[in-house]
Amino acid sequence: GVSTGGPAALGAILPQLPAGFPLPVLVVQHMPPLFTRFLAERLHATCRLPVAEASQGATINAGKILIAPGDYHMKVARGEGPPCISLDQSPPQNSCRPAVDALFASAGEVYGGAAIAAILTGMGQDGLRGAQILKACGASVLAQDEASSVVWGMPGAVANAGLADRVLPLDQVVPEIQIGRASCRERV
User: Which one from 3, 86, 106, 148 is the annotated catalytic residue?
Assistant: First the structure.
């Protein structure tokens, strides 16, 4: 989950994920419609993993990065097959749509403790309630540190609430995810 300063933060860390990364990556970046598609296209050109703007019913696959489309909450849904994307325009949460809380809460319902949440630079406290839900399920929660954040609102809210397992500089987020990914795969 990311907001102010997010495109640069995502551009710095997502290309670090190796080809064949064994987990799906779901991103909520607070942005209006159209800009999220441009962000996905730009990241697709620089990442070793495929990046796309999420669409309704898209299957959530390991090694693929999906960006929430502007003006839609992106949620994880469990259907008859593997988990998939559910998009809706229910009321904004924390004055945001898409909202990190909507994604994190749904990920907790579907994946439980087999998730790693990262809260990056951003204004406000979107992601705090969702981080509480994920922590209660046993998931790992990472927060970007203040020094490397453009705005430390979102990660600061999670860190100050005692929900972050680690508070890290931006360049250490992906290495920490790499460490935690094995335990996520074991819990699925």
Answer: 3
The pLDDT tens digits of the residues spanning 62-96 come to 999 999 999 999 999 997 889 999 999 999 999 99
CA 168 to mean position of chain CA atoms: 16
CB distance 144 to 119 below 8 Å: yes
CA–CA separation, 133 and 117 (whole Å): 11
The answer to whether 88 and 75 have CB atoms below 8 angstroms apart is yes
Tokens 């229910």 locate to 90
**Of 86, 106, 126, 145, which residue is the catalytic one?**
126
In which band, very low, low, confident or very high, does the pLDDT at 187 lie, cut at 50, 70 and 90? Answer: low
Active site residue 165: no
Surface-to-core class of residue 66, CB atoms within 10 Å of its CB (0-12 exposed, 13-18 middle, 19+ buried)? buried
| Cα dist from 178 to 10, 19, 67, 127, 134, whole Å | 16, 13, 20, 21, 19
* Average pLDDT in the chain: 95
